[in-house]
What we know:
mainly beta
Amino acid sequence: MIKPPPPLGDLWTEWGERLNTYLVRFMNRIQFKQADDSASDDGVFLWDREINQPVVSYNNEWIPLAYSYNSYGAFYTLTTQAATTINTATAITWGNTAVASGVSVDGVVTSRINFSRAGTYEIHFSAEMHSESSSAKTMYMWPRINGTDVPGSTMVNVITANNQRKTVSRTGLFQVESGDYLEAMFAVDSLDLDLHGLAATAFCPASPSAALVITEVTV
Length: 219
């Protein structure tokens, strides 16, 4: 932070002019948030270097503010997603990014979607269930944030016919911090049930086995 000119010298008018120049030049700039800055007073507006985002103090918290652009991403997988054990949580892996800014597939653990900015996000999930037998089979799907299941979020669907397909979807709002990651989980009570899209044909493009659309919202 650039400090105001000190009151040096015998001519106070000169110091006053230097101080006025400083105020005109620098006081309209947003100040950087320091480690010891307190959010006890509401309405303090600062720039947070750690998240590269403006924040405002409210109710003893620093609240990130959306500015100029929102983070977003569209991800999908064309790979069949199959569990290896029944009634066991399995993470969907993401192989394709359609568009993205501020949200990305992890370079090492491809089931993770990483968030570079804190905020509230609308997340739309869809998947194509596929049956490989004529018995009744159940699939469970739910989100995880940082490895922890989101309470009250599971979708439950049943398929009975052989080679039957069923597209399921859900949209929700999620509050995340910078550095958090999201995973889409599923489990089945029969290995004859998986997430399975279709290859491209002469008249239509490929059908993903699962897809995510993520948009940061301003609240």
